[in-house]
């Protein structure tokens, strides 16, 4: 089952709502791939023995992993943390998240600076490229269990917008304008 993504409406309602335009404007996996966003659907019930996950980790060099439960009962200052995650930012490295349980939204900016909402659910592994403007929020379920993957030691530094002069942002924009090739095949 493929991931769902769509262009967001401009509503200021609760960030945990779907924010679909009317009529809905779906976004394809191909469009996400053009932005450098990669996707796989894996088996979250057997992530410890998943050969496909192992291949992805080896191919991309992800040697660090941890698990994160996000819900009001398990996170101190939950509402504040959620607001922080929802602040538009970039990272100097890829952001790799594998949803094991629950659901939430990653919002990314497209080439025209429009928000695309990506709904992740159990089994969805998503990779956001370094330098892409994005944010995260839970949906109305208020629960997600994520595997976070990193190259080397984990780095969680977020650089809030604007960051046009940040090296990762410059490299990302360059990759969009040059389009020398398609990222590693995902499905």
UniProtKB/TrEMBL annotation:
Cofactor(s), by name: Fe(2+); Ni(2+)
CDD domains the record matches: cupin_ARD (cd02232)
GO CC list: cytoplasm; nucleus; plasma membrane
Biological or metabolic pathway of the protein: Amino-acid biosynthesis; L-methionine biosynthesis via salvage pathway; L-methionine from S-methyl-5-thio-alpha-D-ribose 1-phosphate: step 5/6
Molecular function GO terms recorded: acireductone dioxygenase (Ni2+-requiring) activity; acireductone dioxygenase [iron(II)-requiring] activity; iron ion binding; nickel cation binding
InterPro entries: ARD, ARD_euk, RmlC-like_jellyroll, RmlC_Cupin_sf
Protein role: Catalyzes 2 different reactions between oxygen and the acireductone 1,2-dihydroxy-3-keto-5-methylthiopentene (DHK-MTPene) depending upon the metal bound in the active site. Fe-containing acireductone dioxygenase (Fe-ARD) produces formate and 2-keto-4-methylthiobutyrate (KMTB), the alpha-ketoacid precursor of methionine in the methionine recycle pathway. Ni-containing acireductone dioxygenase (Ni-ARD) produces methylthiopropionate, carbon monoxide and formate, and does not lie on the methionine recycle pathway.
Name this protein carries in UniProt: Acireductone dioxygenase
């Amino acid at each position: 089952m493929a991931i769902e993504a769509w262009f967001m409406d401009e509503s200021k309602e609760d960030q945990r709502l779907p924010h679909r335009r009317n009529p809905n404007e779906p976004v394809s996996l191909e469009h996400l791939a053009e932005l450098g966003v990669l996707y796989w659907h894996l088996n979250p019930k057997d992530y410890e023995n998943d050969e496909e996950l192992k291949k992805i980790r080896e191919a991309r060099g992800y040697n660090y992993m941890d698990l994160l439960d996000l819900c009001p009962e398990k996170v101190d200052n939950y509402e504040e943390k959620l607001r922080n995650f929802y602040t538009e930012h970039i990272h100097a490295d890829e952001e790799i998240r594998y949803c094991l349980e629950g659901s939430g939204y990653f919002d990314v900016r497209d080439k025209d600076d429009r928000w695309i909402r990506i709904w992740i659910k159990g089994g969805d592994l998503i990779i956001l490229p370094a330098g892409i403007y994005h944010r995260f929020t839970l949906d109305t379920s208020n629960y997600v269990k994520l595997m976070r993957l990193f190259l080397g030691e984990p780095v969680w530094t977020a650089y809030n917008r604007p960051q046009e002069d940040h090296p990762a942002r410059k490299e990302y924009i360059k990759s969009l304008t040059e389009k020398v090739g398609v990222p590693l095949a995902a499905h």
